[in-house]
């Protein structure tokens, strides 16, 4: 299963690189700084995939996500119509932090309620 998460992480990273290499699309944002929200969500998902790909090692996942975010911003400095932005990097880091917090808070809740959600309590009682 871990190999699947690694493959998904690599594909997701490749998609980020591909999109980052495209010229910046012109248009009106739905609200001010909408791109920052997209950056945060993008790297929140990256963190979750990295966490699963590393066997739930949060420290390694955080380092991977932040290193990739930094490399993405550096990459954009060399793409015409794009630029490297410290604010984008900050939004990436905020996305990583929020995802880390959600995973940290969500896992105990998942463990507590997975029996009810998946019906594991019934299977255990029936197995005895």
Structure keywords:
single chain, 128 residues, mainly alpha, 5 helices, 0% strand
Give a verbal description of the structure.
The protein is built from 5 helices and no strands. It is mainly alpha-helical. The protein has a domain at 2-22 and 32-99. Helix 1 (2-21) packs antiparallel against helix 2 (34-53) and helix 2 packs across helix 4. The two termini are 29 Å apart. The mean pLDDT is 90.
Instruction: Name the shape in a single word.
Output: elongated
Q: Indicate the low-confidence ranges by residue numbers.
A: none
- Proportion of residues in β-strands: under 5%
| Portion in helices | over 70%
Cα distance, first to last residue? 29 Å
Short structural description:
This protein has 128 residues and is mainly alpha-helical.
SSE layout:
Layout lengths: L1 H20 L12 H20 L4 H19 L9 H33 L1 H8 L1
Helix pairs in contact: 1-2, 1-3, 2-3, 2-4, 3-4
């Amino acid at each position: 299963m871990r190999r699947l998460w690694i493959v998904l992480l690599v594909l997701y990273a490749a998609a980020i690189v591909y999109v980052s290499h495209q010229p910046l699309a012109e248009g009106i944002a739905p609200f001010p700084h909408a791109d920052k929200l997209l950056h945060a969500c993008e790297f929140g998902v990256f963190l979750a995939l990295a966490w699963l790909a590393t066997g739930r090692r949060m420290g390694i996942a955080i380092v991977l996500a932040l290193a990739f975010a930094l490399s993405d911003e550096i990459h954009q400095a060399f793409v015409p119509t794009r630029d490297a932005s410290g604010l984008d990097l900050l939004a990436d880091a905020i996305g990583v932090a929020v995802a880390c917090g959600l995973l940290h808070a969500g896992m105990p809740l998942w463990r507590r309620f997975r029996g009810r959600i998946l019906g594991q309590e019934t299977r255990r009682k029936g197995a005895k």
